[in-house]
Amino acid sequence: DIRGEVFNACADEHPTRRVLYTAAARRLGMEPPTFEEGGVNKIVSNAKAKRVLGYTLQHPNPVEGPSGV
Question: How far apart are CA 6 and CA 48, in angstroms?
Fold first, then answer.
């Protein structure tokens, strides 16, 4: 019974926004965006979902994804 539990749905790997959006732009043949330096890096963990639900990701790295970079 997992009613009332909270699970984070996220990838195993945590590329920066810069890495993720630059890879996506290149994959789509677009100019990569520019980013300001600094900011806070927050990491969200999916460990609880994998541990409690036995969840396994098909694509643990969003940069590589199913279509690659």
Answer: 9
Q: What is the pLDDT of residue 16?
A: 86
Contact, 65 vs 59, CB < 8 A? yes
pLDDT at residue 23, as a whole number? 92
13 burial level (CB within 10 Å; 0-12, 13-18, 19+)? middle
pLDDT tens-digit series, residues 51-68: 999 989 888 998 886 655
Rounded-to-integer distance, Cα 23 and Cα 15, Å: 10
37, two tokens? 């330096």
Helix ranges restricted to H, 1-69: 17-27, 47-53
DSSP class of residue 7 equals -
Cα–Cα distance measured from residue 44 to residue 33, given in angstroms and rounded to the nearest whole number: 24
Cβ-contact 63, 23 below 8 angstroms: yes
